[in-house]
Amino acid sequence: MASGGTLPSDWGANLFEQLVDESLDGIWACDGELRCLYWNTAMERLSGLPGVRVLGQNIVGVLAGLVHGDEGPALRAVLEGAQGLSSARRAAGAEARVFRTHYLAVRSESAEVVGVAALVRDVSVEDRIAQVLSETDARFRNMADASPVLLWMSGTDGLCTFFNQTWLEFTGRSMEEEWGVGWAENVHFEDLEECLETYRAAFNERRVFEMEYRLRRRDGEYRWILDRGTPRYTPDGRFAGYIGSCVDITGRRNLEVDLRRSIEARDDFLAVASHELGTPLTALRLHVDQLRRNFRTPAGVVSNEGRIGAISHEVERLSRLVDTLLDTTRLAAGSWRPTIERVDLGALVQRLAVDLSPMADAAGCPVEIEIQADLKGNWDRGGLEQAFTNVLANAFKYGAGAPVEITIGGDGDVARARIRDHGVGLPPEQQQMIFERFGRAPHTRGYGGLGLGLWIARRFLEGMGGTIRVESAPGCGATFEIALRRDPAALEEALS
To answer: Regarding the domain delimited by 263-333, which CATH topology (the fold level of the hierarchy) does it fall under?
Structure first.
């Protein structure tokens, strides 16, 4: 008996019979001649054979009618002293059942093997589950190996346990070589530390990550890889490791390098062109002034003023275009730094409205200004003038024929200006686009311009710790709100 107590002597046999008869597992026993001596109730249920038909029969023959395969060798091995033998057999006939049998030797008081006992369990459900899992795993591996992207998996310890065939063909290495952290041997030494640190940080926090690094291909060339890893979990919510996918982005990276070089070349050209165009523009202005003096009558009237005015207007247009290009190159190169001085925002906007009145009159846009508070702050005057000029010019262009309303307000910390037009407007999905360099809303391309004005305004304002945003809807005009921090300390912090 097992430790923990002693049963009364008359309990032993009865208790054993009750246990084996109530067991959910089938139990049978045979003697040394392989004659069946015991066949419990569970065996009757599993086999469909009553004990009276089995007892005394050769157990090998009985089992042959129940399962595929010969159990004779296993039984004889147990009789010869083998221990812990088990077998799994499918049921004979059309039944899709599987039985697992565990054999143990029955010994006499002198320890001689005198028979065999067996525990039989129906494991059909477990077998079907195992088959489904095996098929699922096989499908996953087939799909993974057929995938054009590089796939990997890691366990709960962070070590990689799987790489698909695409990965192995890319690196020219075996699964054993890549296993664990072996894959890191192919990462470029300049990228390795950041690569591993990104992975470790994301792994510890159980979050999705993306990283780019160079991975050596089988031909020795390093290729840029975009690696995206995602934590995976078991159905009951337990963390199971990571799964990741990698794509070769070398082509994209090369295009980005070429694009950056092209942009730098373009900005260099614009910078040179802007400076070079400034000299003839100055000369043109002087010639226009000379023409006015030459055509001025003794009565002070300028004859041919219409033509001279048209020339002057085009010169000013060209001058504004050159100034825009110059501002663009300065901002793109990061060479502009604000010169801070005390500025009265209301007075600045009022003066700009007067200076831009010819543009407003030409567009048919009466300008209405409401100053709600005396707002002074420490800003760059030139940057503010350029930013407000660009926003007002935008309002005159797209809100032609309707008033443009300017409201200046704010509080002790922030100054705000709202510039509202009643023009074409734009949908929400296009509102961020207009603040990008060369950004143009699709339905406004017929209005002309380079798509730089609002980008320049945003960059000047951000350089002073300010912001600009727009509220708009198609056909309902647009309202631009400019917010500027007035606190010198806050501005210094923004510029540091």
So the answer is: Helix Hairpins (1.10.287)
Q: Does domain 13-122 have CATH number 3.30.450.20?
A: yes
- Give per-residue pLDDT as tens, 252-287: 888 888 887 877 776 676 666 666 666 677 777 777
Spell out where 332-373 has E strands.
340-344, 367-371
Domains 13-122 and 128-248 share a fold: yes
Residue type, 57: Q
Q: Are 350 and 369 in contact (CB under 8 A)?
A: yes
Continuous H helices in 249-344: 250-294, 305-333
Structure tokens at 432: 């961020």
* Per-residue pLDDT tens over the stretch 135-166: 767 677 777 677 789 999 999 999 999 999 99
Strand, helix or coil for residue 175: helix
- The CATH number assigned to the domain with range 128-248 reads 3.30.450.20
Distance CA 58, CA 38 (A): 12
Edge-first strand listing for the sheet containing 98-107: 36-39, 26-31, 113-122, 98-107, 86-90
- 32 has a pLDDT exceeding 50: yes
d(CA 261, CA 280): 29
Domain ranges of the chain: 13-122, 128-248, 263-333, 340-495
**DSSP conformation class of 57:** S
